[in-house]
Design brief:
By secondary structure, this protein is α+β, with helices and mostly antiparallel strands. Helix content is 47%, strand content 13%.
Length: 107
């Protein structure tokens, strides 16, 4: 049934995730991070500027502007210096969070 049922909802869902991805990628790049645009994912990984600790960055971001990101080191040593952001949050909240990240990056 899953293979033969109406699949039109997938197009809309993919467009939603693509829009969120583009908002996040653009904002993180403007905040000075290195970001590869994922082709198909529900997360965006960003490399923090050299010398910035991912655990400290994530904690400070949460405490200062109330935006939660996952420090890369929770996934192992190869995640050091990276953060991961989920695209599963409603688009309006993603926009607000990225505005807060931009504000934080200017401090």
């Amino acid at each position: 049934l899953a293979l033969t049922a109406d699949q039109s909802w997938i197009i809309e869902r993919n467009a939603t995730y693509r829009a969120r991805r583009d908002i996040v990628v653009s904002a993180l790049r403007e905040a000075g991070m290195t970001v590869d645009t994922p082709a198909a994912a529900i997360y965006v990984w960003a490399k923090l500027p050299d010398g910035v600790d991912d655990q400290t960055y994530a904690a400070n971001l949460l405490e200062t502007v109330h935006v939660s990101v996952t420090p890369g080191t929770v996934f192992g040593t190869t995640g050091k210096g990276y953060i991961r952001i989920s695209l599963g949050t409603p688009t309006e909240r993603v926009e607000e969070a990225m505005a807060r990240v931009a504000k934080f990056s200017k401090q």
